[in-house]
Amino acid sequence: MDMQQAQGKKISVELTVNEALALTGVRFPQNHQLEVDAMQKIKKSLDEQLLDPRRSFQ
User: Fold this and answer.
1) Could you read off the pLDDT of 22-32 as tens digits, one per residue?
2) Which of 2, 36, 44, 56 has a Cα at 20 to 30 A from 9?
3) C-alpha–C-alpha distance, residues 53 and 26, integer Å
4) Is the pLDDT at 54 greater than 70, yes or no?
5) Cβ count within 10 A of residue 19
6) SS3 state of residue 45
7) Rounded to whole angstroms, what are the CA distances from 15 to 11, 18, 32?
């Protein structure tokens, strides 16, 4: 699947409320790991759903 085909597809990622807030720019000075964890979840989901040809899109 090329990028043009993938642009209209949707993926689902389960985030905690704090992870989602961290991705919107809310800062958690005591826990920067929230943003890092959220980004890792998104990257993993993209990898699994876009790069793994055995998986199908929802």
Assistant:
1) 999 999 999 98
2) 36
3) 35
4) no
5) 21
6) helix
7) 13, 8, 15
